[in-house]
Amino acid sequence: MSQTNPAPIADLAPVRRRAQQRAWNWYDWANSAFYTTTLTVLFGPLMITVAGRAAGCGDSPDDTCKKTVDVLGLHLAAGSLPSYLTSFATIASAFILPIVGAMVDRSGRKKMHMAWFAWAGSFFAALLFFLQGDHWQLGAAAVVVASILGGCSLVSYYAMLVDISTEDERDTVSARGWAFGYLGGGLLLLINLGMVLGHDALGLDKELAVRLSLLSAALWWAGFTVIPVVKLRNTPPRDVVPEPGGLIRRSFGQLWVTLKDLRHYPMTLTFLLAYLFYNDGIQTVIYSASIYGSKQLHFGDSVLIAAILLIQFVAFGGALFFGRVARRHGAYRCLVWGTVAWMVIVVAAMFLPERNIALFMLAGVAIALVMGGTQALSRSFYSLLIPRGREGEYFALYNACERGTSWFGTLLFGVVFQVTGSYRPAILSLVVFFALGLVFLLRLDTRRGIAEAGNTAPAVV
To answer: Which DSSP symbol is given to 297?
Structure first.
């Protein structure tokens, strides 16, 4: 039997919901600093340099160092260490997040789960300031733990989307959150890149400027998390699966029940498969864009940095634009056409001429527009396919699909380059992931999936 609880925030007056939604958006602003400044841009090169010193490579700033460092008895190339650390964190997250999601569903304190995971993650992210000299071990452990805790915080954060919005509002709310995240992450990245590039004028060593930037991302993450913690209100758990015992035992019980019951929600499973493929393609495009621009198109660091910042800020507009389009045409259609657009982009990227800055930036604008929209609407559309009371666990599965498989695309990209010796066919190969994602999207019966989950379909799906 489902337990009876007070009405969710989505049943409150619109003005009160909007206040909660604005507070919720601040966590996108807060955590994006870690994912942009730290994971995407600055951590990898610094770790390669520091680990390279320990391995005897000198101060080489790139990934050409083949000498190894010892990691738990494994001899790993210093130049590959950031990739291995990221892979380990993503695979570990795939096992940990579903348990966290089950705990979130059974707690009436979602915002505090989010906050404590965020603050713990930002603490470990701050330890990256001590990544210096040839002491890479603390930084390696810190980035793995911070990444896992960041994923745990997002489980609670995503689960709250259902509590603060009606079905008709979710596309807009999710799009605004993503847009806010791109804006916040881009703003801090702009400041940090200015500090790193202008370190001489500031009287700083370049490595110290990078370390201060990593510290600033951790402080930004922790500081801005205070806003949603203060302004959001908790809601009690609703319609959870009864399980005996304490919180941990009941959480594992719900995990098992949800995995078994997933077969009763075939449309939800179909969307997860679609998301697994097209999101892997998106993540690989993001990962490989700088490599493609540098190694294949022969652009310098200044052009690549400009492209990174352009993508970050244009994605802000892309998320808002897709949110508006979804209000008129539905999130499902936007996702289908967005996936088609990704296919066009990777095919066009193969034919980009070398050293043509205008076309390279135009490709960056196209990536940013589609990236902002597809990521934002994937989150809101999936929320319609989740049975009420299991938001945490189902969003944990969503994040696990993203994190546990996001290495497939990079593996294919690397293998094709190794076989062909060119990054052009490597970038083209990513069309496979978008094509498979599109196949599963086209198999979706959206209204059936929403009804199976026991939710109300929005006016436009």
So the answer is: S
